[in-house]
TrEMBL record:
Species whose genome carries this gene: Leptospira meyeri
Protein name: SH3 domain-containing protein
Length: 373
């Protein structure tokens, strides 16, 4: 590509006579004068129109106010979700009125139909479970139909639990609230397993954050109390000094509600909550970890959302163990623990879906052949 200076493009051509030069200058001058005159005329016209328009009266759009009767009807048929930490409960519908106390995330409140104050667009009169009444800002909370209450509550909770901007103490509060709400007896069936599974997930994320930040309960009384409240759902690893959610929390939930809409999700959380065992070459340890986690999920959920993922992972691990039969750590005399694990896995694999069975069972049969000699 060749670049030519811009100046050369405008300098091409020649002037052949003095008369042509004179004629060109006259034409250019006249055209320039006409353009200048037209430009001034347009400016005058625009300024005149602007002055005329500015003198016209303006119409201000007034925001439509909701009628008090409509506010009462809407609030009385809605449920309120508090999606923030420390929302002020005011004595009156006024920002400057006394703050009775701060509300927790997700704290159950209901519309106070007995409020003596007339309904206001910016405030909702509410009553707490302990009987305390007051007003909260409408713009801060979520008012939803009853059928959307649970999904909205859990959506807001998960948003905050997964946020890096929310501190550890706030995540403890959110987890405690969801567990408390799940224990009220308000939810049953699909909804119950969903909120309990989510509560376990929030507990896992909160404990994971504690482990990552190295927060020790001995130095933090609030954290110590939090762990005590959930001690039946947690495991402690003395080697690493870390806490884990016991996967049996989710498995027991599945046993109680085996065929519900959210069972698959609970099974996924149970599998993901399995702590990574430091097995090294311990064959029994490695087989037990696979059987209690991914193989158990495949067995319980033959059409689950995560079956392809877990089958692929399981086959990869078994393949790495059996690709060289001579390297399988089955040293004579082979312990009964190893034999028991292999037999249990073969029993599980014999009853799973045909596609998964075809991929998994051959590797287990190789293990049996080498270890049962």
């Amino acid at each position: 590509m060749i670049f030519v200076p811009l100046q050369k493009i405008f300098c091409r051509g020649m002037v052949f006579s003095q008369s042509l030069v004179y004629l060109r200058s006259r034409v250019l001058f006249r055209n320039g004068l006409d353009f200048f005159t037209s430009f001034i005329a347009v400016l005058i016209l625009v300024s005149t129109l602007s002055a005329s328009l500015s003198s016209l009266p303006t119409i201000q759009n007034k925001s439509k106010q909701t009628k008090p009767s409509e506010l009462i009807k809407r609030d009385s048929t809605s449920q309120i979700v508090i999606p923030v930490i420390g929302l002020n409960l005011h004595l009156f519908a006024d920002q400057k009125s006394d703050v009775l106390r701060k509300l927790k995330f997700g704290e159950p409140v209901s519309f106070d139909k007995d409020s003596l104050e007339s309904p206001k667009e910016d405030w909702i009169p509410v009553k707490l479970e302990d009987g305390l009444s007051g007003f909260i800002k409408r713009s801060v909370v979520r008012s939803v139909p009853p059928k959307l209450y649970l999904s909205t509550l859990l959506f807001e909770a998960e948003r905050m639990i997964l946020s890096n901007q929310i501190d550890f103490a706030a995540k403890q509060e959110i987890t405690d609230t969801i567990f408390a709400i799940s224990s009220t007896g308000k939810f049953t069936g699909d909804d119950f397993i969903f909120i309990r599974a989510k509560a376990g997930f929030f507990l896992k994320k909160t404990v994971d954050l504690m482990n990552t930040k190295g927060i020790k309960p001995d130095n933090d009384p609030g954290t110590l109390e939090f762990l005590k409240r959930h001690q039946t759902r947690l495991l402690y690893d003395y080697n690493s000094g870390k806490y884990y959610v016991d996967s049996n929390y989710f498995w027991k939930l599945l046993e109680a509600y085996p065929k519900t809409k959210h069972s698959d999700y609970a099974g996924y959380l149970a599998t993901e909550s399995m702590p990574n065992a430091d097995c090294n070459v311990d064959l029994k340890c490695r087989l037990e970890e696979m059987r209690k986690g991914k193989l158990r999920y495949i067995y319980l959920f033959p059409t689950g959302n995560y079956i392809n993922l877990y089958t692929k992972d399981l086959v990869y691990n078994l393949q790495s163990m059996t690709k060289d039969p001579d390297s399988i750590p089955c040293f004579a005399p082979v312990g009964e623990g190893i034999k028991s694990e292999i037999n249990q896995m073969i029993r599980y694999a014999s009853e799973i879906g045909p596609r998964e069975k075809k991929q998994i069972l051959p590797h287990l049969q190789i293990l049996k052949k080498e270890c049962f000699r």
